[in-house]
Each structure stands twice: as structure tokens, then as C-alpha cells.
Design brief:
The chain is α+β, with helices and mostly antiparallel strands. It has one domain. Helix content is 72%, strand content 13%. It contains two helices and two strands. It is elongated, with a radius of gyration of 25 Å.
């Protein structure tokens, strides 16, 4: 299964990179993005905005996954301590 994933990524990654390059080449015209209640407007090629949106989405997804895994790691640590406490022999009186 792991080998299949690596093989699939070696096939898909070049295709995605070529698609991204073609998208950037065929969309060089600048577009305006307005940040609506603010009076700001940015002009840049569509490919730049696309990459920015994808990067922000990736970052938010990775961040939320890290937060969830941190909570799970904390719970695991507490359960491990409880288990060790239950398995240890009772202290002599």
C-alpha cells in the first residue's frame, strides 16, 4: 500500500506541476481583488491569487490537524499515566 502511494504521487505530482505552469502561462492578465469593507485593491495575475488561496487553505488545514492531534496526544499522555498508576503494585503500608 505504501509503495502504491509513492508511485501514485510520482505520477500525479508532475501532472499537477505541469497543470499549474500551464495555468500560470495562460492567465498572465492581472486581476483586481477588492477587500470589501476596506478600501484596498490588489492587482496581480490570477495564478498568484490561486497559489495564495491554495497555500492559505493548506496552512489552515495543517494547523487544524495539528490542534486536533495535540488534544489527542494530551489525552493519550493522561491515559498512559492512569494505566501506569493502575499497573504499579500497591505501596506497602
Amino acid at each position: 500500500m505504501f509503495y502504491f502511494g509513492r508511485l501514485l504521487s510520482k505520477i500525479l505530482l508532475p501532472i499537477l506541476v505541469l497543470w499549474a505552469l500551464a495555468f500560470a502561462v495562460y492567465n498572465p492578465e492581472p486581476v483586481a481583488v477588492n477587500f470589501w469593507p476596506l478600501p484596498y485593491e490588489l492587482m496581480a495575475p490570477l495564478s498568484v491569487f490561486t497559489v495564495l488561496v491554495l497555500a492559505v487553505g493548506y496552512w489552515l488545514g495543517a494547523w487544524s490537524g495539528y490542534i486536533k492531534s495535540a488534544r489527542l496526544r494530551s489525552e493519550h499522555k493522561q491515559q498512559k499515566k492512569q494505566l501506569e498508576k493502575m499497573e504499579s503494585p500497591a505501596a506497602p503500608n
